[in-house]
Write a structure and sequence with these properties.
alpha+beta; Peptide Methionine Sulfoxide Reductase, Chain A; 6-stranded mixed β-sheet; two-stranded antiparallel ribbon; 32% helix; globular
């Protein structure tokens, strides 16, 4: 069921043997956080009390885990976007032939956190937007960096922010994040939900994802919340 991560784990961590005892040690590839400016153009304020963002940035376990710790986020659901409903299943998406990307649907209160701030966390903490069709040990178009805007204002904000970050050379390489409007989101299987919280000692999580939570706490202390909002509590949208 999770063979992909178990197999790729061998490339993500090293086996150290000393005094006849073996243990796992983190590899050096785990993504480092980037301090980047806030977007100069943000989605205009309105009267809405709830908004949805859909973001893809590698394995959805870590992206979901990050946003579950963000103040103003009401729910964060792992799933798939970019392909058809019929192929929105883990084993099929994992072939890299469906057009889907592992994604996270983030429901947030725009009175507490803006879409632009969501993107700032996405680019700086949740993943590396300069990696093309991969994140860390995970390779394939299903791990691409992609934004699935749910309205025109989100699309404009994302496009302007990517241009801003590239102009300012916020990253050593150009951002490869794709903006893909008009794509539906499909929730992933139940065993993928809340994975980081439920399996904090799982080696893939320890190496690749727990550092993201620490980076969120360090770079965004006013937006970090220690107790994550869980799908198991809020529920998966139908």
């Amino acid at each position: 069921m999770m063979k992909r991560h178990l197999l790729l784990l061998m490339g993500a961590i090293g086996l150290v043997v000393a005094s006849g005892t073996a243990w796992w040690t983190p590899a050096t590839h785990a993504e480092a956080a980037h301090t980047i400016p806030a977007p100069a153009l943000d989605e205009p304020a309105g009267s809405a009390t709830s908004e949805v963002a859909v973001l893809a940035g590698g394995c959805f376990w870590g992206v979901q885990g990050v946003f579950q710790h963000v103040e103003g986020v009401v729910n964060a659901v792992s799933g798939y976007a970019g392909g058809d409903k019929e192929t929105a299943h883990y084993e099929t998406v994992s072939t890299g032939t469906t057009g889907h990307a592992e994604s996270v649907q983030i429901t947030f209160d725009p009175r507490k956190i803006t879409y632009g701030r969501i993107l700032q966390i996405y680019f700086s903490v949740a993943h590396d937007p300069t990696e093309l069709n991969r994140q860390g040990p995970d390779v394939g178009t299903q791990y691409r960096s992609a934004i699935f805007p749910t309205n025109a204002a989100q699309a404009a904000t994302a496009k302007a922010y990517i241009a801003q970050l590239d102009r300012s050379h916020a990253f050593a390489s150009s951002i490869v994040t794709r903006i893909e409007p008009g794509r539906a989101f499909y929730p992933a299987e139940a065993y993928h939900q809340d994975f980081l919280t439920l399996h904090p000692t799982y080696p893939y999580i320890v190496v690749n994802d727990l550092p993201k939570i620490e980076n969120l706490k360090r770079l965004f202390p006013t937006l970090y919340r220690a107790e994550p909002v869980l799908v198991a509590t809020v529920g998966v949208p139908g």
